[in-house]
Amino acid sequence: MQEDIIRSVLDGNDTLALLPTGGGKSLCYQVPALAKEGLCIVVSPLIALMKDQVDNLEKRGIKAIAVYSGMSRYEIDIAFDNAVFDKNVKLLYLSPERLTTSLFREKLKRLNVNLFAVDEAHCISQWGYDFRPPYLQIAEIREYIPGIPILALTATATPEVVSDIQKKLLFKKSNIIQASYERKNLSYFVRKEENKLQMLLKIAEKNKGSGIVYVRNRKKAKLISDFLSQNKVSADFYHAGLEPALRDKKQSAWQKNEKKVMVCTNAFGMGIDKPDVRFVVHLDLPDCIEAYFQEAGRAGRDEKKAFAVLLYENADIIDAFKNFETTYPEKDLIRKVYNCLGNFYQLAVGTGADTTYVFDINEFSEHYDLSHIIVYNCLKFLEKEGYISLSDAFNDVSKLHFIPDNKALYKFQLSNPKYDPFIKLILRLYSGLFNDFVKIDENEIARKINTDTVAVVKTLNELVKQDVVLYNPRSSLPKLTFSCERLDDRGLMISDRNYKELKDKALERLEAMTEYVAGNTKCRNQFLLNYFGEKNGKRCGICDVCLKRNELGLTEMEFDKIVDTLRPHINNEALNLEEIIEKLKGINEDHLIKVLQWLVDNDKIELNAQGKYRWY
Q1: Second label for 159, Cα 20 to 30 Å away, from 261, 309, 460, 509?
Q2: Could you give the CA distance from residue 30 to residue 42 in angstroms, rounded to a whole number?
Q3: Is the pTM of this model over 0.90?
Q4: Per-residue pLDDT at 136 exceeds 50
Q5: Which has the closest alpha carbon to 265: 224, 227, 221, 299?
Q6: Comparing C-alpha atoms, which of 190, 146, 282 is closest to residue 519?
Q7: Banded pLDDT at 3 (limits 50, 70, 90)
Q8: Rg of the chain's alpha carbons, rounded to an integer?
Q9: Is 314 helix (H, G, I), strand (E, B) or coil?
Q10: Whole-number percent of the chain with pLDDT over 90
Q11: Is the pLDDT score of 491 beyond 50?
Q12: Nearest-angstrom CA–CA distance, 566 and 572
């Protein structure tokens, strides 16, 4: 569907593109951006993905810029100025909270925008699984760029969300281009399993290609990776708490097939284009169908046979509902954490808007004697409400920018000869330092001048004090940005209605997930397609449910006909086998008995002590 989407936006139409995971959504705005004069603004909530796309575009000689939470004010200023004045910049990636700033609104008037793309567009809908209030500001941008089409993209949206996206983005008319969510090569399996590790080992050994194993927490990722390695399956683990360089190394080894299996949290997978993943296994229950569908969809992008396996036990479902309750802390607790944040960073009420701080959740939790998980969930809710934003340290690198121009810097070098060799080396190693913040490697610099990294950092900080450079050192900690000034208790609005609606919708999504897991009568593919609004999906024939039904030796039509004929007779009264055979004359007796047995085995009908059948 990519060509249809591209042609639609080139014709000036607002367009909602629904493409499954791996469907190539980014190409749908990158091609129009390159085809037309000006640049494309791309709104995305995923900082890691923005950075990854900018890096990949630049490798292809395409200029792109990303602006997101955690960048310094000066860094943001330079990025926006480059977007305004450098006509070669074709894409400007923004995190949603940047849209609300007066700085961006002012720069927008001077930008030559050819397209406005909204990635992960489901985030604009309160009914979506990852609602983000800053997305609601997107519609306001339209008055600054009249006549410029909007392209909204998502891989996961229910019919309710599809309608809401177009309404919130002020589409002139409904225009949906949708590829089917069906993945004909992907076989979905759900298995109730007490010994998950042994089953995982069988799956890994049986499948020759690479795989991904999703777990809920970091500690588990390492334990399971170690288990696989000890059993001679090449494996590694990945989560957001690892150093960026180590994450890159692990990801690269897996993508090159040096490691067969990556055991990871949901921090892994976004933007990773590895076509030959043969299996994705979930050892913990995801929170919703949308998240599961995206993660499972990373298998089989080469359109060859692949498996998405979910292993569970009853305790997992109980734990999922317990986790759900902790995800929505009491409103008073959310207010307490917000006030503690302000005190922690010594912000007075009415100050702190758009300020960014390195955030150590362990230090914060210990300082205020709060549970780590409660703090995390309170912060995530405050982020959803648009008061703060949290950025992971994902792919964070050190950056440097020279403040004076060439002439002024030369004067400084003459006046301060001890810094002259150091500055000359930096200028030889890296280009563009006067125009932008440039990624640097302190280790590389240290090797070149035969010293250690500590000495390099010390010299850079000395140059900072003398207003020669701006230096943003690498950090392994996330950053927290106050999206608006610190508010007092009355100003911090958490409406009862909004809180309840968000919680109720999240509960609905969790219940749908548990229904998918516990269900054993409906084709997995049909269930997923139906969830996303495709009502006429056919049985896939290759999921665990279909394979069991295939053993009956009946076609889907034959099976459904017997069930439809049978149901009215045993809906209101219990009948024995002889009575059922009598009432369903004309139906093959062997087929009828097979269907009855299958329905009993799968808990659709009851067989009581008197040998009578009745529909539950």
Answers
A1: 309
A2: 10
A3: no
A4: yes
A5: 221
A6: 190
A7: very high
A8: 28
A9: helix
A10: 57
A11: yes
A12: 12
Domains of the chain, by residue range, sit at: 2-178, 186-312, 321-394+478-505, 398-472, 552-615
44/37 Cα distance (integer angstroms): 22
| CA proximity to 156, closest of 137, 178, 174, 172 | 178
- Burial of 139: CB neighbours in 10 Å, binned 0-12, 13-18, 19+: middle
Q: Write out pLDDT tens, residues 384-429.
A: 787 888 776 545 678 999 999 999 999 999 999 999 999 999 999 9
Taking residues 264-289, report their average pLDDT: 88
Q: CA 69, CA 47: separation in Å to the nearest integer?
A: 8
Higher confidence at residue 181 or residue 70? 181
Instruction: State phi, psi for 418 to the nearest 5 degrees.
Output: -65, -25
> How many other C-beta atoms lie within 10 A of the C-beta of residue 252?
11
Report the pLDDT value the prediction gives residue 394, as an integer from 0 to 100. 47
For the segment 89-135, what is each residue's pLDDT rounded down to a tens digit?
Answer: 999 999 888 887 888 989 999 999 999 999 999 989 877 777 777 78
Domains 2-178 and 186-312 fall in the same CATH topology = yes
Q: Is domain 321-394+478-505 in CATH 1.10.10.10, yes or no?
A: yes
Beta pairing, strands 89-94 & 176-178: unpaired
Record: fold of 552-615 = Arc Repressor Mutant, subunit A (1.10.10)
Q: Give the position of tokens 């002024």.
A: 408
**Cβ atoms < 10 Å from Cβ of 189:** 18
Distances (CA, A) of 544 to 4, 288, 290, 307, 482: 35, 20, 20, 11, 48
Name every residue whose Cβ is closer than 8 Å to that of residue 262 and which is 6 or more positions away in sequence: 210, 211, 212, 213, 235, 236, 237, 238, 250, 251, 254, 268
Burial class (CB in 10 A: 0-12, 13-18, 19+), 436: middle
Chain segment 166-182, per-residue pLDDT in tens: 999 999 999 999 988 89
pLDDT band at residue 241, thresholds of 50, 70 and 90?
Answer: confident
How far, in Å, CA of 318 to CA of 242, rounded? Answer: 30
Per the prediction, the chain carries an average pLDDT of: 90
Question: 186-312 domain in CATH 3.40.50.300?
Answer: yes
* Residue 305 reports pLDDT greater than 90: yes
The answer, yes or no, to whether residue 138 has pLDDT greater than 70, is: yes
Q: State the angle between helix axes of 196-206 and 218-230 in degrees (0 to 180), rounded to the nearest 10.
A: 60
Tokens of 429: 């190693």
d(CA 422, CA 516): 61
Level-2 CATH architecture, domain 2-178: 3-Layer(aba) Sandwich (3.40)
DSSP conformational letter for 20: -
CB 558 within 8 A of CB 598: no
**pLDDT given for residue 396 in this prediction:** 64
Helix, strand, coil share of the chain (percent; to 5): 45, 15, 35
Based on the number of CB atoms within 10 Å of its own CB, is 610 exposed (0-12), middle (13-18) or buried (19 or more)?
A: exposed
